[in-house]
Amino acid sequence: MRAVIQVDLDSLWTYKRYLNQELAPSGLDPVYHEAVKRFLDIFRKNSIKATFFVVGSDALIPEHARIIKQITEEGHEIANHSMSHPLNFSSLGEEIIRDEIKKSHEILERLSGKRVRGFRAPTFSIDERVLKILEDLGYVYDSSVLPSFIAPLALNCAHSLLGGRLRNISGSNMRFANTPLCLYRPHMKNMAKSGQGKLYEFPISVVPGLRLPMHSTYVFICGRWLFDWGKRELRKRQIPLNYLFHGIDLLDTAKYDLRLPFFGSLEKRKSMCEYILRRLKSECELMSTLELIEKMDGAHDFCSASGL
Question: Which of 235, 252, 242 has the alpha carbon at shortest distance from 216?
Answer without folding.
Answer: 242
